[in-house]
Amino acid sequence: MSWGTELWDQFDNLEKHTQWGIDILEKYIKFVKERTEIELSYAKQLRNLSKKYQPKKNSKEEEEYKYTACKAFLSTLNEMNDYAGQHEVISENMTSQITVDLTRYVQELKQERKSNFHDGRKAQQHIETCWKQLESSKRRFERDCKEADRAQQYFEKMDADINVTKADVEKARQQAQIRQQMAEDSKADYSLILQRFNQEQWEYYHTHIPNIFQKIQEMEERRIVRIGESMKTYAEVDRQVIPIIGKCLDGIVKAAESIDQKNDSQLVVEAYKSGFEPPGDIEFEDYTQPMKRTVSDNSLSSSKEGKPELRFGGKSKGKLWPFIKKNKGVTPEDFSNFPPEQRRKKLQQKVDDLNREIQKETDQRDAITKMKDVYLKNPQMGDPASLDQKLTEVTQNIEKLRLEAQKFEAWLAEVEGRLPARSEQARRQSGLYDGQTHQTVTNCAQDRESPDGSYTEEQSQESEHKALAPDFDDEFDDEEPLPAIGTCKALYTFEGQNEGTISVVEGETLSVIEEDKGDGWTRIRRNEDEEGYVPTSYVEVYLDKNAKGS
């Protein structure tokens, strides 16, 4: 099958068809270009999406990513970022391997097509010129033949006419001979041109046009093959990134499988554990029974109006403390306003940070020392004295950091030494964690501590406690000494700075005259004339077996 033999008379249609083929190729190039733009846009949107949900540095959100679920989500974001990169690779490869290549090929194809059809038109013009020459020689031969016939007829007429002179007859005869010769010449010329035209026409239809059309056919077939190869490349570009995309998806699956709900639950415990123990049962106070101590009517009224109200305020506070707003006060340097467990973690974190700073400064000092040694051995490289000031500053910084680390390590050792004893015996639900904080405490019954270690104070209760504070003194002044129901040992030093409280020293043994009623305070006595309230979490209570309560 050859276009030169099958389509020898379809020059115009072939010209239209090849132009259509180029249009199809350009349309495919445009399609691939738009695909690359979509891939780039998709990759950009994926990257922006991944960046949008990345945790912000040095923020609370970054701390949340210690949980396995959050880590898996972070891994997903990172994998999606790599996933976006593969779509960028698709765009780049399609641009370089298809778009650029085909665009250059289209230009070459247009030039080749133009050259082939130019040769075809040139051949057409040549055969048309030959045809015109043949037609012209044919008409001239026809005309000369007719003129020769007329001249011959005129001569025969003149020769038959007896009235015509011999000279006129001779003249007619010569004219007929001339015309006859002209006809013969035209015949020979026409015959020659006809032979030449037939030869040209044969070559045109059997050589020139087939060759030109064959080139056009080969050009068109190459275009078809090229667009097919481009389509294969289009698929291969996608196929090449499939393994990497599969790895990205496998990474997401692996991250999801790494989620450990038990570990996350343990992290919640570590993050919010206060170190206190939950409160014990509140004892029933039977106000229908007579009091076991002899008091006057005034002191009884004072007792009912003073201390019980104060306790109830404390109990109300104790029940509501998970929902009370955190105190916005300044955090002490030793984190003494935190519960024991949280304080230990804060101190440990501070010690670790200081150790890292010390290591950093130490490395810097070593580097400066080495540089100074180099300068000493090679003075042309620098002045060793120029490093003395910097070396002194770094050494001073290291010393400051070490002193700071020692201070926090001492606090940490203190907390770690106390935690086991408290966790075994004491009920640590509320009270002041350290009586020497910078917060101003104005009530005798200290506010309960929330689970995250923050302390709260409400103005209404503060004013109420202020108003009740004198009743403490009245109560102690008017009532008879209560019998001891047990003893207690001070676990921590407590400075009783408020009305109705009493100061104790760590390790001190005192008498218990009234146990904790659920408000977080225990009433104790030192000697016979000094008594008051201390936080229950600051003492370890040993009740007599025959005493009321457990």
Compose a concise summary of this entry.
The chain is mainly alpha-helical. The chain has 3 domains: 3-264, Arfaptin homology (AH) domain/BAR domain (Substrate Binding Domain Of Dnak, Chain:A, Domain 2, Up-down Bundle), CATH 1.20.1270; 340-418; 486-543, SH3 Domains (SH3 type barrels, Roll). The chain contains 11 helices and 5 strands, in the order H-H-H-H-H-H-H-H-H-H-H-E-E-E-E-E.
SSE topology sketch:
Elements: H1 3-6, H2 11-52, H3 60-63, H4 68-160, H5 166-257, H6 261-272, H7 297-305, H8 307-320, H9 340-377, H10 388-425, H11 459-478, E1 486-490, E2 509-514, E3 521-526, E4 530-535, E5 539-543
Antiparallel strand pairs: 1-2, 1-5, 2-3, 3-4
Helix pairs in contact: 2-4, 2-5, 4-5, 7-11, 9-10
Q: How is this structure best described in words?
A:
With 550 residues, this protein is mainly α. The chain has three domains: 3-264, Arfaptin homology (AH) domain/BAR domain (Substrate Binding Domain Of Dnak, Chain:A, Domain 2), CATH 1.20.1270.60; 340-418; 486-543, SH3 type barrels, CATH 2.30.30.40. The protein is built from eleven helices and five strands; from the N terminus they run H-H-H-H-H-H-H-H-H-H-H-E-E-E-E-E. The protein has helices spanning 3-6, 11-52, 60-63, 68-160, 166-257, 261-272, 297-305, 307-320, 340-377, 388-425, 459-478; strands spanning 486-490, 509-514, 521-526, 530-535, 539-543. The chain has a five-stranded antiparallel sheet with strand order 4-3-2-1-5, with no helix packed on it. Strand 2 and strand 3 form a beta hairpin. Helix 4 (68-160) runs antiparallel to helix 5 (166-257). The longest helix is centred in the N-terminal third of the chain and has 93 residues, at 68-160. The chain is rod-shaped and about 195 Å long. Mean pLDDT is 79; it is low at 292-328 and 420-478. It holds the Pfam family SH3_1. Belongs to the FNBP1 family. One of its GO terms (molecular function) is lipid binding.
